[in-house]
Sequence to fold (129 residues):
Amino acid sequence: MKFLTEKMFLKALFILLVFSNFNTLIAQEVTVTQDPKLEQLLSEKRKVNSSITINNQYKIQIFNGSSEESKKTLIQFKKENKNYDATIVFSTPIYKVWIGNFKTRIEAERNLNILKKKYPNAILIKPNK
Fold:
């Protein structure tokens, strides 16, 4: 009988310890400190992302393919053409190199004809909102 009471005592003690630790875990408070520059960077990133895809402007796609090839194409393009905006856009499973922010279709087609000499697969696009 003494063994049974010791066993019950140990069970009760174990349960008491578990619940007391559980309560202290719940009562603990977590404080997260964030560098103020992080929010500024996120804001800048949102602006860049919105300017890339959400506007009514035309773009010219000069390349689509692998990540490495798109990086090489973008670097080469930027070396040769400093007056165009250019960026890489990922659309599963391929990477695309987009050029420019042309307000009118005529302006975009004019530039497309120029770029087709160097990039014969270039196409005119108008990204979706």
Observations:
- The radius of gyration is 30 Å.
- Strands lie at 58-65, 86-91, 94-102, 123-125.
